[in-house]
Amino acid sequence: MKISRIEHMCEGNGHVIIKEILDAPQLNGKCRMYAEVILEPGCSLGYHEHHGESETYYILSGQGEYNDNGEYRPVQAGDITFTPDGKGHGLANTGNADLVFMALIILD
Amino acid sequence: MKISRIEHMCEGNGHVIIKEILDAPQLNGKCRMYAEVILEPGCSLGYHEHHGESETYYILSGQGEYNDNGEYRPVQAGDITFTPDGKGHGLANTGNADLVFMALIILD
Q: CA gyration radius for chain B?
């Protein structure tokens, strides 16, 4: 499993930890990324758009504020977000524990 | 989220609970299923093969015994399994708590 720590991802606060579950051959040209992502308290993944792909978050634990293409809503364990091609999103940890979620990018 | 309870899935013991995170339009012809799966204590998902697709399990919690195309090994939170096209797998909960995992099927 490749683990990356990215500072100020998409101009977010702090850092994002990305644990990649599948490599490129396994993703088989159908998906671009499949990962468990961790936002520690105070950290956020800044707003960004997806083009030529969709991205789904599945929240595993923690509390966050999700920016769904400009509309904000709280998210917690069990919540699903879906960003279709051409739209954008961001996510901030608003709690005192790690915000952990699965991220899957499916190509168009 | 579509939630299914399947008895004796692939001739396994007990039942399997499948929470589908994406529907067919969202899977976009690239993946066949993306789900959180729960095996309660004593339950198993029987051995089965995949053809024309791969399947990845990412273990979120619990203890299990994974059948990796005929070879058995224990699995726990953080473990990744990958079954390529033409191979098979099965999974049994060997603990006292739910065995919870993400399942992703990517088409060839």
A: 13
**How confident is the model over B16-75, as pLDDT tens digits?**
999 999 999 999 999 999 999 999 999 999 999 999 999 999 999 999 999 999 999 999
CA distance A18 to A102: 10
Q: Say whether A29 sits in a helix, a strand or coil.
A: coil
Q: DSSP 3-state assignment of A26?
A: helix
C-beta atoms of B104 and A34 within 8 A: yes
Name the residue of chain B whose CA is nearest to A81's CA: B21
What's the pTM value of the predicted model, to 2 decimals? Answer: 0.97
* Cα nearest neighbour of B53 on chain A: A28
Q: What is the 3-state secondary structure (H, E, C) of chain B?
A: CEEEEEECHHHCCCEEEEEECCCHHHHCCCEEEEEEEEECCCCEEEEEECCCEEEEEEEEECEEEEEECCEEEEEECCCEEEECCCCEEEEEECCCCCEEEEEEEEEC
How far A75 CA sits from the closest chain B CA (Å)?
Answer: 15
Subunit contact A26:B54, Cβ cutoff 8 A: yes
